[in-house]
Specification:
It is a single chain. This protein has 196 residues and is α+β, with helices and mostly antiparallel strands. It contains four helices and ten strands. The protein has a four-stranded mixed beta sheet with strand order 1-2-4-3, covered by helices on one side. A four-stranded mixed beta sheet has the order 5-6-10-7, with helices on one face. α1 packs parallel to α4 and α2 packs parallel to α3. The structure holds manganese (II) ion.
Length: 196
Amino acid sequence: MTTRKAQVKRETKETNIDVDLCLDGAGEYSINTGVGFLDHMLELFSKHGFFNLKISAKGDLHVDEHHTVEDIGIVLGGAFKKALGDCSGIARYGFSVVPMDESLGQVTVDISGRPCLEYRIKCRKRKSGSFDLQMIEEFFRAFAVKAEITIHIESPYGVNAHHVYESVFKAFGRAMDIATSIEPRRKGIPSSKGIL
Ligand SMILES: [Mn+2]
């Protein structure tokens, strides 16, 4: 089986982003986005998804984190789309529930070819440190649109916002690992329509 890799670069007046992704990795990462909280979350995603991931980003942080976080979602989503190719032989569906102390994160993905995000985080904290947590929803929406994947994210309870989002990104990594993994019983495209 060929190693499924992709490199995507994107440069605008607002951000300059370079992503290097290997789906069949060991969870090795080098992530420098200029946004510490996002670096930490993407390191957890890489580690628990067994994706080898390099991200370097320079964004207009003097404005705020918005463009940088959203655009990283766009480029990382595009890298998954490119690395998956026609999705031959993959499991397609992935699901994971991960606890982080008192918090629970649950992520379900369908590599469907149709972008959709359902996002239900009970924890109402707005900030973790100085990071604006509402940007995480923008990250996942941009990722789902560019990867053309359906993602359902839920955290039904959790007190500490850092714990809540850690559990979500770990579950995201594990669910994407399951969905993108090669299913030996699968012949061709994982769809009765014959295309995704
Ligand atoms: Mn942490």
